[in-house]
Design a protein that fits this description.
Chain lengths: 234, 438
């Protein structure tokens, strides 16, 4: 579904991505792990058009999208939940969901109801301002808003950031549910153990390169991963 | 005896004493090397009148105003907190104000008042001010509100679009050294579409390269653009007539079959013409605010990156806001050119840009009713001070009064006189957002 071939991103003289390649198949949850500064965020910025790749190809369903502008991604079927949630603080929950369907021309009333079934807490808060929600509720709203455009591929940037363990648990459960509805998920995470338990496959980044990749269950038991991300001595 | 209260109040009284003396000195005569204390001395001895009610020393006058307003605010705060009678009154008021028929009735009443206004106001100064200083500024404030209030872009050079509209009118009617397109002596009515289109084009030309910038950077570039337009008007003598200004711009006139009417020196017909266009622009901007475009503007204002990730092209909508805001400024330019018959670059200053911004901030950014009302209030105060200056009033003092008014507004009504619905609830939302992120 999504295929990146030898993508290189440079910020001036600094090379952030030294030719990375990765692949996401339809119906999968694929996670991208890595320490701070490994290039995870740059990769996701590149996949959502916010950052141009100087070399290489990004194919989505066979079409090169390397030069597509960020605002055209929802129309392609890719939806991006940005880092730090970025919900609209002065809009109500409902208005935020409305904005999520901005690129759609058809009626989306049913979709809002679907979101309220998937995220019951948002239904209770439907008239409240986005800025008045708790961190976990905001993350749920950000995911629901991204789903309003009915994406085939959902890009998630660190959905667990700054949240309590119990809330992280429920967010990951929801990500699993989203895959059940047929949406492919590409998940960038620092919380390696949670992400690998949920995902089908994983890529591990180091210094702007894909260091290694494998099935998620194998990575969970891989000594290199356990040493670096799960805090065990090798 | 309640000592803590006395102590608290005496500290406040001392602060008011010092600040009122500061106010008295800065509004007094300037000192010089020979008489360094003249400002201080005069602030005590020089008599000032409080709108003709009583006459006293300037310092004493300011002190009295300070104490009275402090007590008023104190009392108002007391009244505001834990008063259930007040609460129920307020909720009753807001439920009435939200009623659709009430809104419609209010709009009708205001409309009728606006139509009848010239029969009440007969003073020639006020009749003139009503058109050239109030109604035209309402148009300018409406336009800037689209840019600043709806799209959240700080434009410090809005006067540029006003100037483009005015000079376009002069050009079309043959008042510039540059030859007009449709021969000379064209009725300014034909200049309206051309001026509006040229102002919008200016908005697009300024917008496309600069609107990639954000926040402060955009403000600086727009500031520069405003200055560039004034410099062009000043120095391109062969095109604009330079610093001396234009030739005679003709008045509006109508010649449709047997119908003949010429807008002359009397401001009243101009008043009705401007009011008509004010209503038209209010209608257009109101519909835009509640359309897809308005939602995109709100999203961009609140979070540009999020808006972009949801499929909104920020550049497109920002340029649109610039062009649409420029349209009403362009029309204001037509009115100024046709009514005053004459233009000089000295009209289109940075101070005027800031003046328009003050109207928008005072009235309530993003609220159409607010900015119209804000423009009327501020411009009326300005004109009142010019027409009937209080004793010892110097023209530059205006900025002290307006500045003080703005400071008081920012403390007690940070969203403006009539805040936009969305901004009314902004304080709560942003503060709790910071908490949850922190």
């Amino acid at each position: 579904m999504l295929e990146v071939k030898n993508a290189v991103v440079r910020y001036g003289a600094i090379t952030a991505l030294h030719g990375i390649s990765l692949e996401v198949n339809k119906g999968e949850i694929v996670t991208l792990l890595g320490a701070n500064g490994a290039g995870k965020s740059t990769t996701l910025r590149m996949l959502s058009g916010l950052q141009a790749a100087q070399e290489g190809q990004i194919l989505f369903e066979g079409v090169d999208i390397a030069n597509t502008k960020p605002h055209n991604f929802t129309a392609l079927g890719i939806s991006h939940v940005p880092e730090g949630r970025r919900i609209f603080p002065q809009m109500t929950v409902e208005e935020n969901l409305d904005m999520g369907a901005y690129s759609r021309k058809d009626s989306y009333v049913d979709d809002i109801e679907k979101m309220f079934i998937m995220f019951p807490i948002l239904k209770d808060r439907r008239k409240q301002l986005g800025g008045n929600l708790s961190g976990g509720e905001q993350q749920m709203l950000a995911i629901a808003r991204a789903l309003m455009s009915r994406p085939r591929l959902l890009l998630l940037d660190e959905p667990s950031m700054g949240l309590a363990p119990m809330i992280i648990e429920s967010i990951f459960q929801i990500i699993g549910d989203i895959r059940e509805t047929g949406t492919t998920v590409f998940l960038v995470e620092q919380n390696a153990s949670q992400a690998l338990r949920l995902a089908d496959r994983g890529y591990v980044m180091e210094n702007g390169r894909i260091a290694f990749s494998d099935k998620a269950s194998n990575l969970l038991n891989d000594p290199r991963v356990r040493a670096v991300y799960l805090g065990e001595s090798a | 005896m309640n000592l803590p209260f006395i102590k608290k109040f005496s500290t406040k009284a001392l602060i008011i004493l010092i600040s009122s003396e500061l106010a008295a000195v800065v509004t007094g005569p300037p000192g010089n090397g020979d008489t360094p204390w003249v400002g201080f001395h005069d602030s005590i001895t020089q008599k000032a009148s409080f709108f003709g009610l009583f006459v006293t020393g300037r310092w004493a006058l300011f002190y009295a105003i300070g104490i009275i307003s402090y007590l008023a605010v104190h009392f108002f705060k007391k009244l505001n907190s834990n008063n259930s009678a007040m609460d129920s009154l307020r909720s009753q008021y807001s439920s009435v104000a939200k009623n659709k028929y009430f809104k419609l009735a209010a709009v009708l009443v205001i409309g009728v008042l606006a139509i009848l206004l010239p029969t009440v106001i007969t003073d020639p100064f006020w009749r003139e001010a009503m058109v050239s200083q109030i109604a035209v500024f309402v148009l300018l404030a409406l336009g800037l509100n689209v840019v600043v209030g709806f799209a959240g872009l700080l434009d410090l050079g809005f006067v540029a679009f006003y100037a483009v509209g005015a000079y376009a009118t002069a050009w079309c009617t043959g008042a510039l050294p540059m030859p007009p397109i449709f021969g000379s002596h064209v009725n300014p009515f034909f200049a309206i579409p051309i001026a509006i289109i040229l102002a919008m084009v200016a908005g697009v030309i300024l917008g496309i390269p600069t609107l990639r910038l954000r926040g402060d950077y955009l403000a600086i570039v727009t500031l520069g653009f405003g200055e560039i337009i004034t410099l062009f008007a000043n120095n391109l003598t062969g095109i604009t007539g330079g610093a001396q200004g234009t030739k005679q711009v003709p008045h509006f006139s109508l010649h449709i079959g047997p119908l003949k009417y010429i807008w002359g020196l009397d401001p009243v017909p101009y008043y009705y013409l401007v009011i008509g266009f004010v209503i038209l622009f209010i209608f257009i901007f109101y519909s835009l605010e509640h359309s897809r475009v308005g939602r995109a503007w709100t999203a961009i204002r609140e979070d540009e990156v999020a808006a972009e990730s949801l499929g909104i092209n920020p550049l497109k909508y920002k340029v649109m806001a610039f062009a649409i805001g420029a349209a009403s400024a362009g029309f204001a330019g037509v009115m100024t050119a046709a009514q005053s018959n004459f233009l000089t670059p000295a009209t289109f200053t940075l101070a005027l840009s800031i003046n328009i911004l003050v109207l928008v901030i005072f009235g309530g950014m993003g609220s159409i009713f607010g900015v119209v009302f804000g423009a009327i209030v501020i411009q009326t105060i300005t004109m009142y001070l010019i027409h009937t200056p209080p004793a010892g009033y110097q023209p530059p003092d205006l900025y002290i009064y307006i500045g003080a008014l703005l400071v008081i507004m920012m403390i007690f009504r940070p969203g403006g006189l009539f805040p936009a619905r969305r901004r009314q609830r902004a304080d709560v939302a942003t503060s709790s957002l910071e908490n949850s992120n922190g």
